[in-house]
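Colleagues,

For the teaching module next term, I've prepared a clean inverse folding example: a structure given as tokens, and then the sequence designed for it. I'd like students to try predicting residues themselves before seeing the answer, so please don't circulate the second half yet.
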């Protein structure tokens, strides 16, 4: 979970900076920094869960083949 929070902080910062630099609007940069990274952070969390599942499945396959 710490990795996810760290990723969120970086992502919020990048999203705000890009939104602000593209538009010059603090409001737009702030809205972009709230919406897009929030959705992406949730997606990242589930991506990590799926990744762990597939890694565990691969380990089981390897151990089954080794027997």
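(Answer key — instructors only)
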């Amino acid at each position: 979970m710490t990795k996810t929070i760290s990723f969120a902080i970086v992502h919020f910062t990048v999203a705000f900076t890009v939104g602000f630099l593209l538009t010059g609007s603090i409001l737009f940069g702030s809205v972009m920094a709230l919406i897009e990274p929030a959705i992406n952070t949730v997606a990242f969390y589930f991506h990590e869960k799926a990744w762990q599942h597939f890694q565990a499945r691969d380990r089981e396959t390897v151990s089954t083949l080794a027997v």
